[in-house]
Amino acid sequence: MPLTTAFPFVPLDSRRSTEKPRRSGLTMVSDYQLGLGALEELLQLAGDYIDIFKVATGTARLFDRDHLIKKLALLKRFGVRSLLGGQFQEYVLHTMGIEAMPRHLEEARAVGFDLVEISDNVVDLGPGTRERLFDAVRGAAMAPVGEIGNKRQHSAIDAMVMEIQQVLHLGAELAMIEGQELMLDSRPNDELILTLKREVDVERCMFELSTPRVGSTAPEIYLGKKFLVKTFGPDVNLGNVTPDVVIETETTRLGLGSAGPLDLM
């Protein structure tokens, strides 16, 4: 049922997808430890503005299994897809080898995950490994998401474009673009962002926001978010949104936030 909001006579940007499931304009929330009560409150308040919920890094390994099952079921009830963070897969590959992935993915599906992120932030995948992992994720009845970019140093722009195109060609549901690549010297990396706008299918890309974990300040994160919305419009796919700014992010998309309408940003 569509959300019934206050002030219904005030027009919203018609370019914004307002009904779920969305094909574009996805918001991915990244979280480490919300409890069930806090998550349900978040979903009741802002679930209409959340499309994907990422259980970040390897935190899934530390939750009580019954808690994790209930959490993912709660997300499903509110029409939010769950994503298993990529650094967990990197850890499994490094410590157990690719032979452990079928069992790992079987458990991911059993507890209720919909999407699995395949990244190489720390662990080098090596030739052909990403393709094998994508096939394994699909074989376990989930959808693969491929992360592109580096948290520690900036990649060459042409290499980023090529890798995004490769990941999408391999059948990733989304190419997740590392937030640190999208910022340069505390400002939006406009050369990279504008190149991506020209050369890749941005509807199949998710642009991660930078995070304090890698040194970004709140003003820098907001500046990057504003630039992405201004560049791609309100239906840009945004990732790494923290639970406390879901509705603030929606106001930025729609021009209702502190930056003002998009044509004034």
Describe this structure in words.
By secondary structure, the protein is an alpha/beta fold. It has one domain (27-258): TIM Barrel (Alpha-Beta Barrel). It is 39% helix and 15% strand. The protein has nine helices and ten strands. It has helices spanning 36-46, 65-77, 86-96, 101-111, 129-139, 157-169, 190-199, 218-232, 246-254, and strands at residues 27-31, 52-55, 81-84, 115-118, 143-148, 174-177, 183-184, 187-188, 205-208, 238-241. The strands form two sheets. The chain has an eight-stranded parallel β-barrel, surrounded by four helices. The chain has a two-stranded antiparallel sheet with strand order 7-8. The chain is globular and about 55 Å long.
Number of domains: 1
The number of helical elements comes to 9
* Low-confidence segments: none
Strand ordering within the main sheet: 1-2-3-4-5-6-9-10
CATH topology name, in short, is: TIM Barrel
The topology string of helices and strands comes to: EHEHEHHEHEHEEEHEHEH
What is the CATH architecture term?
Alpha-Beta Barrel
Cα radius of gyration in angstroms: 18 Å
Shape: globular
Instruction: Report the sheet with the most strands, covering strand number, pairing sense and barrel closure.
Output: 8 strands, parallel, barrel
